[in-house]
Predict the structure of Arrestin-like N-terminal domain-containing protein.
Amino acid sequence: MPRRGIRQSHEVSIQIADFQSTYLPGDVIIGHVVAKKAFGHGPRTDQTVVKLRLFGRTKSKIVSGSQEKTYRGQAVLVDEEQCIFRGTVSANSKHSFAMTIPKTPQPGVAKTGDSWDKDERGLRGIDKDRNFLSNTQEDITKHSLPAVFYFGDSRALTGSVCEAFVEYFLEATLACPGVSDAKATLPLFIRSHSTEKPVDYNDYSFNVKSFQQITRSERLLPQNRDKKMTFRDKSKRLFTPSKVPSYSYRVSVATPPVIQLDHPAPVPFKVHVAPIMEQNKMICPDGDIRRLPPIELVSVDMELVALTRVRCPGTLGDHSRDKETTYRIPIDEPIALANYNIPVVVQGDLKGPGDEPRDLSERANEQTAPGGSPFLEPNSLHVAVEGAVVPEGLIKHSSFQPHEKGQYFLGTPLDLGNNLDVRLTETKSSSLGGRPTTFEKRLWPSFATYNIVLSYQLVWKLKISCVGEIHTTEGRANVNILPPSEAQGAGRQKIGQDAIKDYEHLTAALNFTSEVGGFLDLLSV
């Protein structure tokens, strides 16, 4: 499915002043339409018209291999034309223009493309951000203008093909009665607006998923911590589990709802353990969470999974195709050697001043509890309920009472993303101690339009160990991929118009590098 490429004819060309590698909605493009030679002939040359058109659209194509049928779809986003000169056109004449890129799809132009109703099929169990937009039932001026995009997928075994793209281009036309029109085209790489500065991930409510785990082992008791498990011990755990010490807890994973590409800070990925206190009386009779056995992180796997959805109109309804693409996030740091203990985070309340421990055994527990100090560690107490205030000064550990509706959280989650320095750009991912992984396909920001949707999920798998017992926890959460902030993108190099020799070559380069300077070498060959 061809895109509109670069065409500078013998009669006419387009020249842009201060040509940019990318443009934003709302930018004004200033330049000239150049007539390379006198255009038209005969008595009507004074009726020659020089026009400039800005056109933007989304196109989709689905080929059903089994039925050998092809379906195509299109949605026009922008179609704006200016008459910049009328009269006799002489050789080497320049005709100036100033074309403003709209900030939203233009009302009225949808009729030149296909009509797209709401996505009735949708995706079960997945939010609306992964559904198509409508240009018939919604106010399109409330939709964002999508950035330039390309997707292609073919399956050799079935012969099926799926292709979709978003494109924008300028088209200059010389028209004179009695003479064939002369045209020139120049594609524009329009990107979406981003935030002025890098986002603060702490401003967002994280997606939290919790998974209950139960560890059963004689090693949960302090006196058996180093005990070698016999066949009898293992059989007891299998046939009489109620007589084996158990530790019940929830592993909670918090992921950000947004990830910004090229962000100067690592991608946050927080993990903590919340013990189920009422079920842990056997191994923690005094309720002191410092006595609970540690839970170690053995390994972690992370991936970003893109879901590209494409649809085309058909006789009885829309035809659609969904395709997942995996972007690996390398975690090469030897997690086990790093000795990452997943911290315990418990919700609870503080006892009043009249509730201090009175008997000697309770005071003894304070002094001998693991961790040494009878006081809470600084900054380990956090507000869980709006309006609560963390007391100043030293707080005794024994004054904290676990309660599922308490005003405070005791403990701080482990930000594994920060510790492992997990980072994402448009072309690669990286982490501490590992080589950056270059993506086979460019990582485009999330967007949704009438016949194309691109959305993402962060997928993870954690392997944890408690007293030698291994458990696996895995899950996924929706995440919105934001383009680099304007501040991050401001330092990117500019590209001159003369560097653009071939549209396909430039697009291929964009698929493999986000640094404009990086693909200049590709274009110069």
Q: What stands out?
A: Residues 375 and 395 are 5 Å apart (CA to CA). The first strand starts at residue 12 and ends at 16. Residues 12-116+129-192 form a domain with the Immunoglobulin-like fold (CATH 2.60.40.640). Residues 354-369, 493-506, 508-525 have pLDDT under 50 and may be disordered.
